[in-house]
Write a structure and sequence with these properties.
Distance between the termini of chain A: 42 Å
Strand content of chain B: under 5%
Strand content of chain A: under 5%
Number of helices of chain B: 12
Order of helices and strands of chain A: HHHHHHHHH
Shape of chain B: elongated
Radius of gyration of chain B: 42 Å
Largest sheet of chain B: none
Number of strands of chain A: 0
Largest interface: A-B, 37 and 31 residues
Number of domains of chain A: 2
Helix content of chain B: over 70%
Oligomer: heterodimer
Helix content of chain A: over 70%
Chain lengths: ~190, ~200
């Protein structure tokens, strides 16, 4: 990525006490963080929760960030972990009915950043497919198609081998095609 | 989707493989149909995931919300006094209750090991009621005891109690092993006392 040099500048500025440098840095990555979390979790409220968690982690750990690895891979790693954590938390809460998930989805719908009907419907269609994939397959599908990352990059983020990722993506792609066919027939 | 088509769509083929596959696509109509379906499906799903109109205010305010959250995080954590204000005392009460409850049980186990003559009135009554309810010392047995005064009463009672010990195990709430030990080790004097108390209190 061509942004690495200016990332470094912003990081240095932030480390030397310039708080606005952090805001500028975040502005560069906030859309990537949000949309990855949004596609993983399937709704705005959860995505927003992930975004805020990710920003806090970045803020606290940026001083320890080693510039030999790329910042966007590091940010994706945090986003991926936080998204998976939130999905697991939701699963546990749903299992013990600790969370009013229907109510939460309603609120998420009302507070969504996507407000026009056509785009809302498109996102719902995407969610109806993605949310049926196992989490790991969903993640690699999103990384490949929406974040447009290479297997090497995904491997650095997830810590999995490229071979395992390819196998996951193969299954994910086949499932997505089947689910789309089912949706079309309904 | 077969692996070869997957590798082509996913961009995993090198130039030589790619050219060979594209040649194959020209002649294999079934493969071409599969490819077109998969490519169109993938394009559609990508389009669904990239909304072109969003409320930009959200992204303008992300860092503002972040600063607010950060300020909250820096405040001393008082959530134990607010969020868990009910839960923590409730857990403490449960813990104290369980200690009291288990202590009571422990006390019961100790008292059952006492000999009958050391029982207080309440314990004697409890024991006799248990004996009367769970061990059927019937009228025939009393008559037999009366008719054969020479028979050691201890043996008779303990035989009778042992004969019914299956019932005793089933119905006695306290530790049944301890209960049996008590029956087996009953002294003649204790047995006499039990018998006379049973008769005197009309428990039978």
């Amino acid at each position: 990525m061509a942004t690495s040099e200016s990332d470094e500048q912003l990081i240095n500025e932030f480390i030397s006490g310039n708080e606005t440098a952090f805001n500028r840095l975040i502005q560069k990555y906030q859309q990537k963080i949000y949309w990855h979390a949004r596609r993983m979790t399937g709704n705005h409220l959860d995505a927003d929760e992930v975004v805020q968690e990710v920003l806090i982690v970045i803020y606290k750990k940026l001083k320890d960030f080693k510039s030999e690895s790329s910042l966007y891979t590091w940010i994706y790693k945090i986003t991926s972990t936080r998204s998976l954590n939130l999905i697991n938390r939701r699963k546990i809460k749903d299992m013990f009915s600790l969370d009013d998930s229907e109510n939460r989805i309603d609120i998420a719908g009302n507070e969504d950043i996507v407000t026009d009907i056509e785009n809302k419907e498109k996102l719902e269609k995407l969610n109806s497919v993605l949310q049926k994939l196992p989490v790991k397959q969903r993640e690699v599908f999103i990384f490949r198609n929406f974040d447009e990352l290479t297997y090497d990059e995904i491997s650095r983020i997830t810590g999995k081998s490229a071979g395992a990722l390819k196998a996951n993506y193969f299954h994910a792609l086949n499932k997505v095609m089947d689910l789309m066919k089912e949706n079309k027939n309904e | 989707m077969n692996k070869e088509l997957f590798r082509y769509i996913d961009g995993q083929m090198d130039d030589r493989e790619k050219t060979a596959f594209e040649e194959k696509l020209k002649t294999d109509l079934s493969l071409k149909r599969d490819y077109e379906k998969a490519a169109a499906g993938l394009e559609l799903i990508k389009d669904c995931g990239k909304p072109n109109e969003i409320n930009g205010a959200y992204f303008n305010n992300i860092t503002v919300h972040f600063r607010e959250n950060l300020a909250k995080e820096k405040k001393p954590k008082l959530f134990f006094l607010s969020k868990y204000a009910v839960a923590v005392p409730a857990m403490l009460l449960c813990f104290l209750f369980s200690i009291v409850f288990f202590n009571k049980n422990a006390e019961k186990k100790i008292t059952i090991n006492k000999t009958y003559e050391n029982y207080n009135d309440k314990e004697k009554k409890e024991f006799l009621l248990e004996a009367a309810n769970n061990v059927e010392i019937n009228e025939d047995f009393i008559r037999e005891v009366d008719a054969h005064k020479e028979l050691p009463i201890e043996k008779n009672i303990s035989d009778e109690l042992n004969a019914e010990k299956i019932n005793a195990v089933k119905t006695i709430d306290l530790n049944d092993v301890e209960y049996r030990k008590l029956i087996e080790n009953i002294s003649e004097k204790d047995a006499d006392n039990i018998y006379s108390e049973i008769i005197n209190k009309n428990l039978l």
